[in-house]
Structures are given as structure tokens and as C-alpha cells.
Amino acid sequence: MLLPQLNISLDDLTLPSGRGSVTLAKRGTCFRSAASIALAIGLMASTPVRAATPSFTVGWSVYVGWNPYYYMAKSGILRKWAAKYGINIRVQRFDYAPSLDAFVAKNIDACAMTNMEALDMPAAAGVDTTAIIIGDYSNGNDAVIVRHNLTLAQIPGKQVMLVEKTVSQYLFERAMAINGLEQQIRQVHYLNTSDSDIASAFLTNQSKPVVVTWKPLVSQILKAKDVKVVFNSSQIPGEILDLLVVPSEVLNRADGSGQKFAKAITGAWYEVLKLMSVPGPASNKVLTDIAEASQDSLASYREQLATTHMFYTPQSAVDMASSAGVKKTMDLVRRFCFQHGLLGEKTKSVDDVAVQFPDGAVLGKPERIRFRFSTAYMQLAAQGKL
Amino acid sequence: MSFLRIHAQPGRTAIWTLSWSLFAAGIVLYFYVAQQRHRENPDDRVMPTIAQMVRGFSDAALKPAAEEEVQAASGSSLLARFRTSMLWTDTLASGRRFLISVALLFPAVLLGLHMAMFPVIGAFFLRFILFFDKIVALSLLPILFIAFGIDELSKIMLIVIGVTPTIILDTFNLTKSVPREQIVKGFTLGASDFSITYRIVFKQIWPRVLNSIRLNLKAVMLFLFAGEMIASTDGLAYRIALLRRHMGMDTIIPYVLWVALLLFLVDFAMNKLNHKLHPWFQER
Predict the structure, then answer these.
(1) Tell me: the pLDDT tens digits for A109-138?
(2) In this predicted complex, what is the ipTM?
(3) B84-112: average pLDDT
(4) CATH architecture of the domain with residue range A149-224
(5) From the candidates A96, A205, A249, A250, which should be mutated to test the interface with B, based on the most B CB atoms within 10 A?
(6) Residue pair B152/B97 in contact by the 8 Å Cβ criterion
(7) Which residues of A touch B251 (CB under 8 A)?
(8) Which residues on B lie below 8 Å from A124 (Cβ)?
(9) Which of B145, B242, B251 lies closest to A200 in CB terms?
(10) A56-139+240-382: what CATH class?
(11) CA A90 to CA A102: how far, in whole Å?
(12) Cβ atoms within 10 Å, residue B162
């Protein structure tokens, strides 16, 4: 966890000084690592010796709605925005769970995650978290898939493969509840399956009749015979939100660098989304580059985009964040998390991890706000003031 | 002073202090950092304090695993509560898989022995097992799923595939290291092939083989954990995977220590048994 940060500090110190960086780069890696170790020791020993420009790290994981972060860094758009605000921003790919761990441990300054994880990981662990970008919602990306034309009502008593205590379980239990089967949820046997193996595990085991997962795994599974989707996230639109979250303390930094960071990343985000939203083949080039983030083809990425409701314009995201729907969603999500113990053993009441909305309304105890929705930066983007 | 020399003869107190000092340093360092993190953020879950871990562990050890049993368990004795707790049910599930897998390592010992003693058997197996040993079993999971399903069998097979080649090859090498002269001597005294294999060679290498199995217990545990994290409904690693979903480090750390303790006890028991059975065996 420490190493990437050491590298940033090295880059920060060498890049602006032009010549120095050239000499450093010419020497072997040996010298480079020796230098970074020496620097690290120096940095640890004396905190006042800071890099000239504040730098920030954004963590993202492979998902249709988050792949744009890869393109943002690769295309130079992010560098342009960071330079405008006089900061450095680095983008790092993680696996999903480790990205959450890194965010909670405060090793990274921003992270792409869903509304549910934002609540039950950082917020519940006492890290006051602010969502600054609402990127999209899953509009069919997550799905309950069955064999042999099974119906939801037939699932109780059978085994369901899913990654327990994630949006998959949330989706499944919402599906049961919407279809009046809430009482039968307890008779379902969950088989906790790692997402890296869930597709092959389901496909090779005819004895397991139900699986809940997300795209692109869903597309992979649906290629098999005799399987079909009985419920997907388009039936609960807007409930599985994909966000970019930042620790509130970063936003509130005294030197204002956190604000600059939020503005720069929001600006870069909407510039990429604008390129993506051009209709027709004009966006092929951009989408191909974005698909590269997950080693996907253009066709496959387009197929995933079709079931993702991207908020292409900042205004649409602001409208979503300010709607009554978000409050209803967050209430459902926090109750789900509390019921399943995701807010932690210590949390005795669902109100102990409170959520604040852009209009100031609070779900839960006002003195225990841990998760905030902010439209400030998206608003600035909408007004063209970034 | 010969304090740092080969001849040094530290006293009992010195040995005791030295051997525990790293433990003490680790514990102190942990709680110092934990304390600092908690001062910054009272709800911190990454590094729980002692009180949190004690609570997490007692919940795990005394609260029933399944919600339906809440009524049944409340009010009964501590032991009865422990027997329905998630810690105990998880330990049983993992323990069963562990024991079956370890038991399956013993045929591997016999195979290694025969490979080394009988050239034809050796010729048949050795090259293949040398190759097979280098295969990273975890990367073949989808094939394992096809062959063994995703229930118990695949978890046990993952362990077997991961650990047996090492045991076979180790037994093979140990067998080969028995001096040829002993075998020749056995033949001149009229021993048969099998009595040489079992009564001369096997008897000598058996305590070393047991040691080799002891060293591989951790590998067994690693594969077991990997298997349980991939797909399961119970077990110690299953619980840890779930707790990770909400950073339940206050329970995970005691769980990890519990696993370490169990593994240590198994290892200790095997070591004691080994020396009881073979008093002439000097290696540790």
C-alpha cells in the first residue's frame, strides 16, 4: 500500500524540475528505487518536506460505468484538468474489494463505488464520505438468472449462487419483495461464490439452478442454453447507483486543494462523458479506448452501456441526486445493510449511520452524518464554471 | 564476553525474554497504531482495539450461527451456546475438510515410497508428477468445477492436487537417500522386496515423512481457505470472506488467531506423536 505513494512523491518532486527528471530517468531502475527509498525515508522523517504540488489518487475497478476513468488518464484529459487546478491526479486500477479496503484505510483520496458499498464500508467504518459524482445507475447490468424456466416463487428452498452481502443479494431480495415473496427469503440457501469464478462455477454445475451477478458475467452466462433472466436491475431503476466518493475531510482541507481536486476530476469526467455520448459511429474511437480498460471489444462494451443509465450531462446527474427517489433508495439500502449486519455489530440502530442529501435533509441522526450526497461540483459543471 | 559468539550459553531467563520479545514488539506496535487510528476516528474498523476484538470473538463463540436458533440457545449453558455458535460450526465444517485432505495425503506417501523403490513404478510416475507439481492448481478452477462440482469434493480435490505432489516427491527423495548398502545387506540376509521396502526403508523415513507433512499443513490450510472463499456456505474462510464485506476486522483478527492456534496444536500433536512413536528420531 505504501509503495505507490512513494512513487507519486518521487514523480512530484522530479517532474516539475525538468532537467532533474531527465537525469533521473536516464539512470537505471536501481537508482530510481534507491532514490525513492531515500526520499521515502526523508518524507517519513520530516513531514514539512512536502511535494510542491498536492497530489491525489483515484481508485477504480473494472465496470462499465467506471472504465471512463482509465480513458480519462490515458487520453491526457485528466492531466489537462489537473494542470488547470495546479494539482497532480493519479488514477489506479484495483480489484473492487481491495479498492474499498484502500479507501477505508485512507490510502487513496477517491474511489468509484456503489451507493450501497459507500454506506456499508467507509461510512459505517466512521470515514465521513461524500459522493461528488453520480455516474450512472445499473439499468439491467445486474440480473437474477435461472435454469429450466424457474420462476421467482420456485426459488425458496433452492441454492442461489451469488456474492453474499453485496448489491447482488440486495437485487435478489428486492426482486422477492416486489413479487410478494418477502416471507420466503429465509428459505433461500445462499451459496457465497467469488465473483472471479461465479460464471464458470454456475455454467459447469447443472445442479445449481439460480445465480445472481452482474455484467459482463451476465452476458457470458446467457450464452449458455436453457438459462434466462427472471429479474434485472432495470426493474428497480436508480437503486444501484455508481458513484465517485471522496472522504469529506479531503474536500475540507484547509489549503483548498481538496476542492480543486473535486473540481478537476468532475471537469475531466464530464469531458469524457461528452465524448462518449456522441451518437453513432463518431464515438467508436473513444468507446474502443474505454473498452480497452476491461479488455473488452467495442461491441461488448456497447452492449453493456445499453443496460447502464449513464448520466451523460451534469444536469441530469444533479436532477437525479436532488430527486425524492434517491431518498427512498437510500432508505431501502440502509435498511437492507442494517438487517444484514453490514453496518457492523456495534451499530445498534439504522439511524447511527446517517445520510445527508443535497437539500440538507438527513436520514438518521443528524449528529451522526457519515455519508453525504453533494451536487456542488456537478452543478458547477452544469453551469460551465469549472 | 562470548554473548554473541557461537559458544554463547544464554540462561533460562535470557532465552525466555529473547523468545518472547518479538511477540511483545508486534503486539505493542499494533496497539500503538490502533490507538492512534481510534483517536482520529472512533469508528475505525481497520485496526480494532482489544475490547472490540474480545467482543467480536465472544459474539462469534457464543452467539448462535443461524438466526432461527436464537430462541433455542438463549438461557442454556455456555457449552451448549458454544456448540451452536458460528465459530464452532465454522470450525467443524473446515476441520472436516482439513482432516479428510490430510488423510488423503497418506496414500501419496506410499506412492512416493514405491516410486523410489521400484524402478518401473518410478519410470511410470516420476516425470509426470514432477511436471504436475509445477501446475498452479488454483488457475485450473473451472476445470476442477467440471470434474468435481462446486461442493465438498472440489474443495478437497483442490487441496489434494495442490499438496500431494510435494509429499510424493519428498517421500521419493527421502527414500532415495537411504544408503544402498542397507538394501544390499537386506537382500544378502534373505529379505524379500516388500520386507525391504516396508521394514527397512519405510521404517527409517517414516518420521521424516511425518515432519514433511507437518511442514505442509500450512499449504493444506491455504488451499482450504482458497476453496472456501471461492464458493461455500460454511467454514472459517467463508466467514472471513463475508466479514470482509463490511470490514469486520474485530472478528477477523481473532478468527485468524484461532486458526493459527488450531494449526499450531495439530502440528504440536503430530510432533509429539512422532517422537513418542520413534524415540530414536532426533530431528525436530
Answers:
(1) 999 999 999 999 999 988 999 999 999 999
(2) 0.76
(3) 92
(4) 3-Layer(aba) Sandwich (3.40)
(5) A205
(6) yes
(7) 345
(8) 43, 45, 246-247
(9) B145
(10) alpha beta
(11) 15
(12) 23
